[in-house]
Amino acid sequence: MDKKEIIKKTIENTLTHLSIPYTSIFFDESPLLWVTVETNDSAILIGRGGDTIRALNQLVQKIVSKVCGEEISLTIDVNGYKKKEKDRIIQKAKLLGDRAKNFRVNINLEPMSAYERLIIHEYFSEDPLIQTESAGEGRDRHVVLKYTESVSSDISSL
């Protein structure tokens, strides 16, 4: 069995053992392991503030990593919840990034999960005017958007 089959079987078995109904499980076309679970009762799978889906994600990652003998990173989405959450995080980061550029200041974002911080780091990775840095400890861990003057280093002009 390949990784995707192991992941799908693990999710199916876990949901069945928990008596959580689902209609389908499929992988999105992405280089990342992004799995979507469709269900008629998304609230039970997502949980308050996404706690249940995060726990399911961690559980499946641990099981699959042990079975495969290597660390596996994956994202489980339920009825598009994670995609909407990612879009919301990017919109907020874009707004705050624009503010950092306009006022030429650093901005501390609110504490967030490792997944949310990763989204922000990836979003600004190609932006020459904003550098990101994670700061803080534990539940206070957050991203700092650091405004940087763009310095063009054209060697041919030396």
UniProtKB/TrEMBL annotation:
Keywords: RNA-binding. SUPFAM superfamilies: Prokaryotic type KH domain (KH-domain type II), R3H domain. Gene3D superfamilies: 3.30.300.20, R3H-like domain. GO terms for molecular function: RNA binding. PROSITE patterns: R3H. SMART domains: R3H. PANTHER family: PROTEIN JAG, RNA-BINDING PROTEIN KHPB. This is R3H domain-containing protein.
